[in-house]
Amino acid sequence: MASIQEKLKVLANTMDRAESLSSDQLSEEKKNLSIVDYKMVTFSLSGKAYAIDIMNVKEIAKASHFTYVPNTLHFVRGVYNLRGDIIPIIDLRLFFNSEVEEKDDNYLENMLIVTVDEQIFGIIVDKIDKVVGIQKSSIQPPHPLFGDINIKYIYGVVEAENNLYVLLDLDKIFGVKTPEEEKELAETAQRQAQQRRAVAMAEEAQQAAAKQETPAVEQKAAPEEKKTETIEKEAEGEAKKAEVDLNFIAGSLNSFRKFTVSSVTEKWTKQRYEQWLAEKGEGKTQLQTENDVDDFLKPFYSKCNNTWWTKDYAESVEKVLPENTAKNIVVWNPGCGRGYEAYSLACILTKKYPNAKIKIYGHDTDLLAVSNAPLMNLSAEASSDWYSPYVARTISGDSTFVKDIKDSILFEYHDCANTNNLPPVDIIFARDILSFLPENTQNKILQEFSEKIKGNGVIIVGDNENIEIDGWNRSDSENISVYSK
Questions:
Q1: What is the chain's alpha carbon radius of gyration, rounded to the nearest angstrom?
Q2: What is the pLDDT of residue 161?
Q3: Is the pLDDT score of 100 beyond 90?
Q4: Nearest to 406 by CA among 347, 356, 365, 363
Q5: Count of beta carbons in the 10 Å neighbourhood of residue 139
Q6: What pLDDT was estimated at residue 188?
Q7: Regarding predicted confidence, which is higher, 125 or 367?
Q8: What is the mean pLDDT of residues 463-468?
Q9: Which of 207-216, 234-243, 367-376 ranks highest by mean pLDDT?
């Protein structure tokens, strides 16, 4: 049997090892804590663990009795007065098409108050858990198996404190383009431009080599014939050069601003190129930066684009609208954006068809814009202009639209390139949207136009857009592009 002294010695050695192990574990924990460089707020949706970057979170709150806003997206619960600021409330469960258990009106919902692109939103979740610190390098790429949501809304997945969290990307959910994405677009455009230049130079070198290999045919030609031949060759060379320049420009327009040179925009692009060449001079026509592209496109946009309409423009639109005695006037406004067009149309249609019920379907893929559109106020200048018969004042003194105007518009987060369940429409108002879509998508939407529009209806596109639909003819009135049968 071991002596008492030996047992005590073994026990002492064991305690020393335990103490050493405990010290090592503590040191490891301190090390882990010292390199935490990312914090996230964790929460649950339908029993699964999610998280968002803490830098997006302004505060955590509980609230109920949200003020309902008519004709908003299905996941917009209403608006909420956050210490004087009226903010939209988005139910993240409904956004991801999860089932939501019905609760009493007095039930306090769990909300994360977040900032996205300098705008404040409240997002409702099932349960808010805690703040978790991690190493950013531990975030794994997104994978569809980790969540019941579209992978494009997932920033990544991370394991922390024995839980697997799906990290959501609020910028993607609300359609905000990051600086990195903008930079990537610019770099892609530059690479494409370099590739096009290389191809063009190779073609020119090949043509030059072919000319050298062709034996010269000696013949006497009259001076006038030689002069005519020289002029023709020079003209042909200039035409080829212009075509190459246009190809470069078309690539830059698409890379930087997704502007597509197709049958819809080809005529305008060629005319603009001639102006651009005169402005910049030979050899200086290429679009190298976003500013170059924006300058080139500046004359393209329709009048009163993305702003309140002037009285003159409103009257011009009213004049091109068809006579219609129907009790219901249905309008499709794809690319409605923040709502300037939709509200302006509602006012004009109310005036043009006083005995009809107006319904405008405003569609856009900019979630931030269509979520805020129902809450839009008018500027002081606009509210005192031709809009005044349709303006009401809020308690705080802001100018907003009367109930009939607001109720006539349904703002929807919707991609117009996808088939929708719209009823037959009397008017399609789609200014400057087709030009910023791929050519195959343009054709698909034009087919939708043809199927949705009534025989006595009109299609209004951008001032500098041309469309082709069998049986429909263009008639520019008041400098507005109108198509009718």
A1: 31
A2: 84
A3: no
A4: 347
A5: 18
A6: 57
A7: 125
A8: 94
A9: 367-376
How far CA 158 is from CA of 112, 132, 133, in Å, comes to 20, 11, 11
Question: Is pLDDT at 160 greater than 50 in this prediction?
Answer: yes
Q: Which amino acid is at 276?
A: W
Strand segments (E) across 283-382: 328-334, 357-364
User: Residue 183: how many CB atoms within 10 A of its CB?
Assistant: 10
Whether 124 and 77 have beta carbons less than 8 Å apart is answered as: yes
Which structure tokens are listed for 6?
């030996």
Residue 62 and residue 109 in contact, taking contact as beta carbons nearer than 8 Å:
yes
Phi, then psi, of 431 in degrees rounded to 5: -80, 130
User: 53: buried, middle or exposed (CB in 10 Å: 19+, 13-18, 0-12)?
Assistant: middle
Any idea which residue has 């406004």 for tokens? 333
3-state per-residue secondary structure call for 92-145: HHHHCCCCCCCCCCCCCEEEEEEEECCEEEEEEECEEEEEEEECHHHCECCCHH
Rounded to an integer, the average pLDDT of 322-329 is: 92
The CA distance from 140 to 159, in Å, is: 9
User: φ and ψ at 39, to 5 degrees?
Assistant: -120, 140
Q: Are 320 and 478 in contact (CB under 8 A)?
A: yes
Q: Which tokens belong to 464?
A: 């500098």
* Chain-centre distance for alpha carbon 254: 15
- Residue 184 CA to residue 410 CA, distance in Å, equals 35
Q: Rounded to an integer, what distance in angstroms lies between the CA atom of residue 147 and that of residue 288? A: 40
Q: Which two tokens stand for residue 198?
A: 């290389």
Q: Which helix (H) or strand (E) holds 444?
A: helix 439-452
How far the first Cα of the chain sits from its last, in Å, is 110
Q: How many CB atoms lie within 10 A of CB 254?
A: 17
When the pLDDT of each residue in the chain is averaged and rounded to a whole number, the result is 82
Nearest to 79 by CA among 119, 37, 40: 119
> Hey, what are 403's tokens?
């109930």
Which is nearest to 144 in space by CA: 166, 175, 176?
166
